[in-house]
Amino acid sequence: MALVQLKGIKKSYQLGKTEVVALKGVDLTIEKGEFTVVMGPSGSGKTTLLNIIGCLDRANSGSYKLDGEEIGHRDFNDLAEVRNRKIGFIFQNFNLIPVLDVVENIEFPCVIRGEDRKALRARTLKIAAEVGLTPYLKQKPDELSGGQRQRVAIARALVTEPQLVLADEPTANLDSTTADQIIDLMLKLNSEHGVTFLFSTHDPRVMEHARRVVRIHDGVMEDGTEAAALEASRLHAAMAH
Amino acid sequence: MFTLIGLAFRNVLRNKGRAGFTVGAIAFGVMMTLMLGSFVIGLGNAMIDDVVNGKVGALQVHRKGYDDVRENQPLDLDFAQTGEVIEKVKRVPGVTAVSPRLVFSGLAANGSQSTMVIATGIDATLENKVLPDANAFLTGKAVDASAANGVVFGMDLAAAMALTAGSGGTLQAASKNGQQNALDFELRGTLNSGNAFESKRTVLVPLKWAQELLGMDGRITELAVATRDRESIDEVASGIRAALGPDYEVQTWKQLRPNVDDVVNFQRMVLTAICLVFLVIAIIGVVNTMLMAVLERTREIGTMMAVGMRRGKITVLFLLEAAALALIGVASGLAVSLAVIFAIADKGGVPAAAPGSTAIYHIVPAVPFYLLAPTILLAGFGTILAGVYPSWRAARLNPVDALRST
User: I want to staple B155 with a disulfide (CB 3.0 to 4.6 A). Which of A73, B192, B333, B341 is the partner?
Assistant: First the structure.
């Protein structure tokens, strides 16, 4: 069943006096439970695409259905609600709140929607244990390593029990060992929780594990699952040598 | 688990140096406002106390028309020292004491020189009840029933006539029908009223002695009245007017000494302006701090938006941060300034001269509700108001742009 359905998505924005066309009519369908990678060179439009899918931005035209509901034209607060309820985010720079400890950072999206705190705490501790953060629950972000911070971000993305997790270059700021651990963790969560993951990355290791790779170039989408997965595999092998 | 309020406090404290500077600016504004205000109000109180408790009384009663010719010290607008008038005044609720006076002009002489004076005959016992501070600036002895011809001169008048305590002279005055009379006096003391004209012209004499001099036995021209408190003066004045009817006029100290009221009001106006400047400086500091916070935390705001925080909650968060700054700043400013003010008040205040006066008052700093409440409210709400624009800017950020910021 389709979780994300994009049809004819167009997006342009002003850069000074120049109009930049970022997406030129993108069609994309992502099924529930998929582990999908969006790849493309810088300026290809993949971040804009992820922003639209993540309800952080709105398309100029086209249709966007999330879990069967048209959400492309909702206002800011409605989109905030959608993000809070249905989407989890993992950022390249982790984007944790520095004054909150690990538990508080994980719980943040649920606290702002006024969730019952007792039930939330139990769920938080369970997710923290799954991502290996149990020994660090009272630590502040600046007391954690990069990998630990990204684990906090993953736990925060999952605590709301979203349908879709968007990860924008989640391994870009991590060393290779940590990146592997993070990828394995997300794969595990994908298979155990059935959460749909959508990545934007250049990391061939992520692409290697992707069940589907979609390419974007100059704002136009190409769906090349097998070819891209093979290419990713070859790239990974070349880097290993 | 955190709350939005807890998060606001933590955000305020994350940059302790800047928070300290901002809190310091608010505390400084509150401290300056309260300390300056308490002293200006204390000075005003001292000036009003001097007039009400030391010179004219809370209010005065005269025969109708007296005020129009007050400068001539008319004797024909007199009334009985005892009887219906004074009893009616005493019965008015809020009146605590009444002192009969006989005011007249005369010529004081020391044997070699003479000068015009304005004399007031007083009953020392009753006068002390109406004007308990009348002798605050007295050197020597006061007018007293035990000394039938003992008088007190203004300080400059005594000096000009080379009179000292114990020395004597004569006071000459005309009766109602123009007949001149003179009596010997003995100087008991001198009074530094703080007012140059009064100091050169004022003489206080025993009421009986004045009545004898003027041939006005049992007659007076003025009643000085004390009231329960300063706030009830206008109400008491209305009561006396109603009791005495149209043949008498009642004037409060504000009408008798409008210059004092004007000075006090002017001082408070200047104080208000200065305090507003202090508060505006503090508020500008808050705006600056909050804008810096928004700028520095742009990506964090973007993250909050990404995980579903609504614009309203982001506004509330930043307003709560402004409120936290206000709370800490106002509380610390209040604590320090009230401690200093009460310590000074406890030691009896500080000596100072009122504008245009040579008399030294002890200014006891006071923090009345009408100073305290607006200071807290203005500093508190001003600080929160200062957070409105930065909060609005934070909430209006585009999440995509905010997340992209470094």
Answer: B192
- Are the beta carbons of A113 and B400 separated by less than 8 Å? no
CB B173 within 8 A of CB B213: yes
Rounded Cα distance, A71 and A79, in Å: 8
Q: Which of helix, strand or coil describes residue B183? A: strand
Number of separate domains in chain A:
1
- Parallel, antiparallel, or unpaired: how do β-strands A196-200 and A35-39 relate? parallel
Residue type, A44: S
* Full domain range(s) for residue A56: 2-240
> Amino acid identity, residue B201?
R
Give B187's Cβ-side CA count (13 Å radius). Answer: 27
Strand bridging mode A164-168 / A196-200: parallel
The pLDDT tens digits of the residues spanning B276-316 come to: 888 888 888 888 888 888 899 999 999 999 999 999 999 99
The residue of chain B with its CA nearest to that of A48 is B400
Q: Which of B301, B303, B304 to mutate to test the interface with A (most CBs of A within 10 A)?
A: B303
Summarised one tens digit per residue, pLDDT across range B173-227 is 999 888 999 999 999 999 987 777 888 999 999 999 999 999 999 999 999 999 9
Q: How far apart are CA B354 and CA B286, in angstroms?
A: 37
CATH of the domain at A85: 3.40.50.300
ipTM over 0.85: yes
Indicate the residue type of A198: L
Helix (H) or strand (E) run with residue B120 in it: strand B114-122
The pLDDT of residue B310 is 92
Q: How far apart are CA B224 and CA B207, in angstroms?
A: 13
Residues with Cβ within 8 Å of B242's Cβ and at least 6 positions away in sequence, in order, are: none
Give just the sign of the alpha carbon dihedral B190, B191, B194, B199: negative
Q: How far apart are CA B138 and CA B155, in angstroms?
A: 9
A108 CB near a chain B CB, below 8 Å? yes
| Residue B132: strand, helix, or coil | coil
Q: Do B308 and A77 touch (CB under 8 A)?
A: no
Under 8 Å between Cβ of B151 and B195: no
Of A56, A117, A156, the CB nearest to B399: A56
